[in-house]
Amino acid sequence: MCGIVGYVGDRQALDVVLEGLARLEYRGYDSAGIALVTGDPRATGLTTEKRAGKLAVLAGVLAEQAPPPSTTGIGHTRWATHGAPNDRNAHPHLDCTGRIAVIHNGIIENFSGLRAELQERGHVLVSETDTEVVAHLLEEVLVADGTGTWVDLAESVRRVARRLKGAFTLVVVDADQPDVVVGARRSSPLVVGRGDGENFLASDVTAFIAHTRRAIELGQDQVVELRRDRVQITSFDGSAAVVTEYEVDWDVAAAEKAGYEHFMLKEIAEQPRAVADTLIGRIDARGGLVLDEMRLSDADLREVDKILIVACGTAYHAGLIAKYAIEHWTRIPCEVEIASEFRYRDPILDRQTLVIAISQSGETMDTLMAVRHAREQHAQVLAICNTNGSTIPRESDAVLYTHAGPEIGVAATKTFLTQVVAVYLVALYLAQVRGTKYADEVREVIAELAVLPEKVEKVLETMEPVRELARSLVDARTVLFLGRHVGYPVALEGALKLKELAYMHAEGFPAGELKHGPIALIEEGMPVVVTVPSPRGRGVLHDKMISNIAEVRARGARTIVLAEEGDESVVDLADVLVRVPPTPTLLAPVVTTVPLQVLAYELAVARGFDVDQPRNLAKSVTVE
Ligand code: F6R
To answer: I need a labelling partner for 445 at 20 to 30 A (CA). Which of 17, 260, 281, 567 fits?
Structure first.
């Protein structure tokens, strides 16, 4: 949530910052702004510009009225929390003298008290944001310290950061201290990009990947001082921090559209590769599973007597699918909880509880808080995550990375499929370690996992009927999605995609539940999308679903049926029939979700909406 960029080097900072913001716009896009240290006397040595609306609005203004040259700058793309998305509340925010500029991601929880104090001391605050207090607090240290002692920018940020409560990434420049950008991080992401004679700061590596792949993730409660040739990281208390640099293992091409009309379309198409990459290196020559990187000992895993999965949104749906696989393969009881609810219900956790936190970004605040709560209760936490070095894996006992590559479209697609694959791997590994499945049984499932990329590819090649279907649904008021067993989370995911992308009312139901109320919604012509379980799996599931389709059809629904190739029992019940390759019941979500993603994408495009940046949303939700 909110994208942040900082730069010090020899290039024009404006170009680097705008390019970085363009790559981070998926994190928030209701306003954008920049601050450049220019030495321009008309503007106290600082040039700032900010505008409500997408980055293009700001870029247009800057193109018409070019700011003076500068090699030190910061930029922000906002997802509003405090204060409406207008020009005034856009970042950067300045102090009273106009010398200090601050950009921020997160929420400063004690801002109202600080604001009142500052106003009492004569500061004039012009926005409704929580962020602005930081600029004025810095002013008190840097400009009006009163002691006459000079304080450097990093030290002033440390002093102010110690007074703040909540979650924040702050990035600051001071016109009187050119050639330095300072950042601070608590519970919100901030990455340093190391260049030659230049350095970068950003919410994530996509902002600077075109310039360098050398990165350092800032740790909790750390401050970074960024200069052209030096990066110095300390804790909020000023002590030197231990720093680990790493090399990002993908390049700029992965963060670009590569000829696709939208990132989402590219990311849907990348799913076979993403699934294959998530399996790579995790299967040994004998077909067994190796998850060495998981960092939980087999002895610990044998002790686990309960599994709790925490996640939000689409990742929560991956968790719901995981429950079926985990309980079936390992016989360990498994609960799945929406992360934002988890800690408030006082869950029962102990050392034998394995908490699995699923998050593509690794920064979702609700999930992070659930992880912290779980660890305080001495549970062991395993993160499933797509973002190397992000906060959730760092704060967990163990991590299993999905290898989907960067996902820029706001709606999760390839990261969802890889999360599902990752939970299968964890479930199978547990089964292998605890002996609830024989080695040959584990190998059989692994062999089925290995052919999933091909099956997803096949689904993608046969999506024309879904595109046609989407065109016919443009004016539908409501779409219902039904599923049973693992098809139920798939129904929830189909409905979520449609809501967030096509802004249509959609609901996902367990098909059996329909007759307990929701069936009253069905009216003539209402589209109902049904995912039919494999007839080769548990027959009873399949047969019950056939009856459920008949029930809605009898009440006038237009039935859109997703069923395995060769399942003839559905033919007479389907107004539209979408075929998917035969897949074992538990693994089926990896193939059946894909047509629902395509449906939502096509409907959103047909209805004229911005697929990659749907309204009111942001990719990485770093506030609670
Ligand atoms: C929906 C979507 C969101 C995320 C949710 C969790 O398409 O992307 O529902 O799944 O915000 O995000 P992560 O996985 O980053 O924790």
So the answer is: 567
